[in-house]
């Protein structure tokens, strides 16, 4: 009756993570899986970098680009805060390495079928799900599966009281001399020009003493163009970090919606949304990858137990409520974003703060952290938030592609 037990639409972080869990050779009776990837072209994202924190011995440790046990935050005044983050490690994973690891498992999984197609319709049908689209060769395709999980980013964002964009440009750089400290990752460096509303910061992830990923990030209402990110990165590397003679090996750009709009995880009796489309992005930080892993593990466990595989909420309701207050406070300019995050990292133990940012802290910890924020502006914002209307949905923003970089091209 079914072409597969499970259809996974989209082969980004969420889709591949779920397929990877379902194809685990240790599962006693794995389901049949149809993984539908977009055909080569504009629907496939360029190579990208994911960063997240978790305990050691994670599922993808064998293909990490780098990891750090210490994080550093620079306040706007230049003073650094350095924290050891045990029991966590901060990890960098490049999409190409992740995709190779997943492909190695899927290629040897007899119950997984990978296809390329542009999916035009995904809906409930006859007690299961119908997937309809056009294959890479142009022929129409239709599949019927018991369950379907849609990981594609929504074309339109949900109605929200506040929507900011986390947008960034990054350079993988090399230097002829040892200028980076590979033992410490700079998570937020607020010695950048701050927008009137929102915030900006630099981000330095050293790969070794001569190589690093350097990014410029903003939380604001609109993205920059390619020239804007390049100018910001030049200012940050030369004028703030004091680094000259860096060579840009490759570049990346991205944009992540930061919104208090709800992302429904169920799209039908047999159709679900996962990843950013299913609420895995933390509104106040933009981090997604760790929540994607929690969702995929829970879905795989539910299917193995024969339960309804509705993805669990990525974050507890109180975490989302606090995020809504922070987004509104940043957007109204009531809270200085650079000062807000610097305060947190300087006054809250790192392990507790990372649990909080991951939505895994206890209520007592949340209250203690809240007392270390600007209490009056946050309280005023919390009191007015129920009266703020949710604005109509808008199209999901697209990040401009970075300018092509020649290998070892000079800055």
From TrEMBL:
Pfam families for this protein: Lycopene_cycl
Entries under InterPro entries matching the protein: FAD/NAD-bd_sf (IPR036188)
Domain of life: Bacteria
Protein name: Lycopene cyclase family protein
Naturally occurring in which organism (per UniProt): Streptomyces polygonati
């Amino acid at each position: 009756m079914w072409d597969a037990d499970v259809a996974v639409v989209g082969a980004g972080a969420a889709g591949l993570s779920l397929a990877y869990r379902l194809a685990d050779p240790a599962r006693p009776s794995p389901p049949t899986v149809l993984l539908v990837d977009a055909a080569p072209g504009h629907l496939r994202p360029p190579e990208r970098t994911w960063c997240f924190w978790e305990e050691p011995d994670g599922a993808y440790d064998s293909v990490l680009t780098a990891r750090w046990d210490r994080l550093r935050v620079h306040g706007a005044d230049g003073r650094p805060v350095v924290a050891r983050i045990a029991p966590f490690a901060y990890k960098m994973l490049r999409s190409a390495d992740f995709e190779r690891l997943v492909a190695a498992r899927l290629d040897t999984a007899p119950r997984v079928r990978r296809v390329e197609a542009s999916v035009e319709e995904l809906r409930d049908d006859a007690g299961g799900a119908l997937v309809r689209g056009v294959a890479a060769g142009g022929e129409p395709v239709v599949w019927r599966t018991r369950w379907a999980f849609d990981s594609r980013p929504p074309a339109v964002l949900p109605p929200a009281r506040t929507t900011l964009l986390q947008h960034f440009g990054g350079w993988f750089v090399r230097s002829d001399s040892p200028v980076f400290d590979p033992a410490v990752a700079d998570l937020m460096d607020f010695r950048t020009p701050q927008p009137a509303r929102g915030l900006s910061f630099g981000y330095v992830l050293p790969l070794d003493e001569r190589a690093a990923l350097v990014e410029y990030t903003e939380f604001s209402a609109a993205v920059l163009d390619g020239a804007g990110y390049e100018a910001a990165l030049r200012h940050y590397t030369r004028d703030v970090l004091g680094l000259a003679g860096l060579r840009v090996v490759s570049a990346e750009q991205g944009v992540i919606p930061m919104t208090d709009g709800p992302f429904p995880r169920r799209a039908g009796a047999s159709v679900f949304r996962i990843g950013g489309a299913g609420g895995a992005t933390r509104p106040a930080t933009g981090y997604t990858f760790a929540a994607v892993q929690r969702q995929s593990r829970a879905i795989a466990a539910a299917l193995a137990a024969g339960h309804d595989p509705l993805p669990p909420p990525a974050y507890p309701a109180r975490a989302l409520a606090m995020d809504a207050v922070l987004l509104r406070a940043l957007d109204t300019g009531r809270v200085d974003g650079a000062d807000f995050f610097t305060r947190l990292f300087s006054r809250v133990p790192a392990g507790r703060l990372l649990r909080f940012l991951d939505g895994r802290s206890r209520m007592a910890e949340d209250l203690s952290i809240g007392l270390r924020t600007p209490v009056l502006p946050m309280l005023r914002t919390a009191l007015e938030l129920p009266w703020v209307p949710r604005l109509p949905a808008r199209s999901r923003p697209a990040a401009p592609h970075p300018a092509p970089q020649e290998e070892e091209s000079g800055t």
